[in-house]
Amino acid sequence: MFKILPEAFVFDYAGRQRDLVTLTFRPNPNFQPPSLEARVFDSMQGEMTVDTKQERLAALNGHLMEDVKFGGGLLGHLDKGGKFEVRQTEVAAGQWEMTTLGVDMKGKALLFKTIGVHETENHSDFQRVPDNLTLAEAAGILNRQTVVADNR
Length: 152
Fold this sequence. Notes:
Radius of gyration: 19 Å
Number of strands: 9
Number of helices: 2
Order of helices and strands: HEEEEEEEEEH
Structural class: mainly beta
Strand content: over 45%
Largest sheet: 9 strands, antiparallel
């Protein structure tokens, strides 16, 4: 889906803070969505922040300006006001990871099934592991982290 962003939106310069450039975006009226999923872009606006030095997407925030109907509404729809947020952070030199994912969307599928996606993920405390780490050692680290997360 990220590959079609340049076609799907019209971008405007919104500001710069050191190496970070912020662009606002709105639907491109000439965009022809190649899939049902891409139809969401016809009703979305928001802003994007790019790290120009490393040419990386740092943040993408958007919201639906109007309902998105699939199959004239017979297959389903997403309600106006739905929003999402994605943030990436440089966690080590040249190594970028998603640190925030937030989705809040509502709608219906096939007229009857209610769709409600309310998800927030935050990732932090990234640590470099030794280059010679074995698979068993990696599994042990992951198992310890899972237990810690379960006990919070």
